[in-house]
Fold this protein.
Amino acid sequence: MSTLARPGFPPEFRPRAFDRFARAEASRTSEGSGLGLAFVRAVVIAHGGTARAENTGDGTAVTLDLPG
């Protein structure tokens, strides 16, 4: 499963995108705690899968791979 986020994550944020309470600088003025992707990754890993984020020309693709 893949989802595209526009305009995308800044390159320096992408390595921390799945960390708890991590928020890109541009999102600090909006609501949220920075737990969404950390929660998603924890659930995916608990089910034997992986989660990753990659910048594309159109934004950031968040990809979840689950077994079976």
